[in-house]
UniProtKB/TrEMBL annotation:
Gene Ontology molecular functions: metal ion binding
Protein name, as recorded: Gamma-butyrobetaine hydroxylase-like N-terminal domain-containing protein
Phylogenetic classification of the source organism: Eukaryota, Rhodophyta, Bangiophyceae, Porphyridiales, Porphyridiaceae
The UniProt record lists the keyword Endoplasmic reticulum: no
InterPro entries recorded: GBBH-like_N, GBBH-like_N_sf
Amino acid sequence: MAIRLVTLSAELNALAIVLGDGAKMLLPAELLRVYSKAERTARERREGWRFPPGKAGVRLYQVKPVGRYGVQCWFDDLHSAGIYTWPMLLDMTRRKRAYMREYLSSLREDGLTRHVKVARASRRRV
């Protein structure tokens, strides 16, 4: 099955993918961001790859075709180095739940969360 069209979802939280047979699929920005090959390669070289935490709210703000083999995505956390090939996107649409389970399980094992922790201001009186 070939990918016919890739656009940003209206909410900017997913890629909207239209397959050759007309089927429509959404790939969450969070999932694309944490499985970025550029992120993974850089971390593997440094210390062994781990999923980046705190990406639950990440949004896409641009997607552009790269030759005839994929797309490049720009995220609101300023990450833009990853290129997503057509085979990778097809695999992610077919196995989206398995990818998400792997990601969440790995974060739990590392004691991390997909949500950004916000520090609360102290209410001490002076």
